[in-house]
């Protein structure tokens, strides 16, 4: 399996996951304080939305790479 097919499959999977889940979330620490033996930290959960057009575009490009990427002239 060459690199072009791996990239195409990765794009297709990313596009499908983007359409199914609609985005992803991650947690980041914003503030941290140590007051003697007490440790305080504030974490925020951020959500990143993946547009539908981006998911569909990734699938289309992945399929195009699978279909036309392996041809040699």
Counted up, domains total 1
Given the structure, what is the number of helices?
A: 2
Rg over CA atoms: 20 Å
Whole-number average pLDDT? 88
First-last Cα distance:
19 Å
Strand content: 25-35%
Q: Give the H and E element order.
A: HEEH
The biggest sheet amounts to: 2 strands, antiparallel
Instruction: Give the overall shape.
Output: elongated
Counting DSSP E segments of at least 2 residues, the number of strands comes to: 2
Structural class by SSE content? alpha+beta
Helix content: 40-55%
Looking across the biggest beta sheet, what order are the strands in?
1-2
- Low-pLDDT stretches are none
Keyword list:
alpha+beta; elongated
Provide structural commentary.
The chain is an alpha+beta fold and about 70 residues long. It has one domain (about 5-70). It contains 2 helices and 2 strands, in the order αββα. It has helices at about 5-20, 50-70, and strands at about 25-35, 40-50. The chain has a two-stranded antiparallel ribbon with strand order 1-2. Helix 1 (about 5-20) runs antiparallel to helix 2. It is elongated.
């Amino acid at each position: 399996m060459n690199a072009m097919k791996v990239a195409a499959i990765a794009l297709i999977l990313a596009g499908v996951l983007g359409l199914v889940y609609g985005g992803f979330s991650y947690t980041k620490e914003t503030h941290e304080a140590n007051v003697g033996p007490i440790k305080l930290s504030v974490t925020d959960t951020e959500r990143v939305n993946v547009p539908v057009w981006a998911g569909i575009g990734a699938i289309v490009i992945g399929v195009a790479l699978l279909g036309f990427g392996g041809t040699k002239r």
